[in-house]
Amino acid sequence: MEKADFYDFFRKIPKAELHLHIEAVISFDSINKFYMRKFPGIGKDEAAREIKKLFTYDNLDGFIQAYLQIQEMYESVADFDLIFSDLKDYIVRNGISYVEVFAAPSAFVKKGFDFSAMVESYSRNVRKVKEETGVDVRILIDVSRTFGAENAEKNLQLLLANRIPEIIGIGLGGSESKGPCRDFGAVFEKARDNGLFTVAHAGEDVDAFSIWDAIDILKVSRVGHGVTAFQDEALMKELVRRGIALESCPMSNVFTKRYVKSLSEHPLRKFFDEGIMVTLNTDDPLFFGVELVDEYWNAYSQMGFSAAELKEIVKNSFRASFLDEGRKARFCAAVDEAWG
Ligand code: HPA
Ligand code: ZN
């Protein structure tokens, strides 16, 4: 398939995205506005140049610092309306039918944002996206490795005190090398006991043992990235045996430079061949300049996936989601129908 045909076709196929950070789905234009508000008098082009400087980093921890600087530019909970408006445009542009998105409250809580106001905004905006597009968005609160276990526990407590149906679980993003899974076991157990789903970034910046810890200590349902599973044959078999899905974000891994230097080196192909339930995701579209249909195109044009194989990966995006079995089956049938 030629590129233009591929994009036309894939935009029309129903698909879910399961690994996306809400603060990084904001458009470049919106961040530019925030920047100009923060530094009054600065021109649009100069603001753009300054923001682009933020987007240069050599590793995951550098990226996380840049991410925190972007979060710094939000002035109040009212700014979340713009993120969700950009999320809505992103959903429509990419033909997405269902989203599970991370929201990372730590930096905002530290700035003094009121958690219950944040939750009210998430809830209202999720309902607005649903009204305008028909698409369900569900939120996973990223309790974060970066600020330690006490901060993660605090995030969980705030969440439990402000339950809304739109927030369905927790995730663990942030610095994998500085925040090992064992520090967060108790937080994840408490989340599960309270009926929350759990996922964790693991094997993005640390060797395969970190993925073992995520599945054995945190007992997560899905692993974010999971790149270093390629190091451990027994781990890959165990992921298959337990039906644990990987939320692969190939372009993100190229940008954070730890284990893959190019898309063609990415182990996604190997994981698929091993029978692991892999999904395709963007992680942070603002930072990596990549949207969901681009990830599918890259897998097709640079990573050796056929269109038929990508159809399985599209279906995996629903199978690996936290939707109920009936909705998963209906979405998979809708994929078959759209495929023709
Ligand atoms: N890893 C860790 N933390 C993050 C990421 C990521 O890929 N994206 C946003 N926060
Ligand atoms: Zn991520």
TrEMBL record:
Family assignment from sequence similarity: Belongs to the metallo-dependent hydrolases superfamily. Adenosine and AMP deaminases family.
Native source organism of the sequence: Treponema saccharophilum DSM 2985
InterPro entries from the UniProt entry: A_deaminase_dom, Ado/ade_deaminase, Metal_Hydrolase
Domain Adenosine deaminase: 14-337
Keywords: Hydrolase, Metal-binding, Zinc
Example GO molecular function: deaminase activity
E.C. numbers: 3.5.4.4
EC primary class: hydrolase
UniProt-recorded name of the protein: Adenosine deaminase
PANTHER family: ADENINE DEAMINASE
Cofactor section: Zn(2+)
Pfam families the UniProt entry points to: A_deaminase
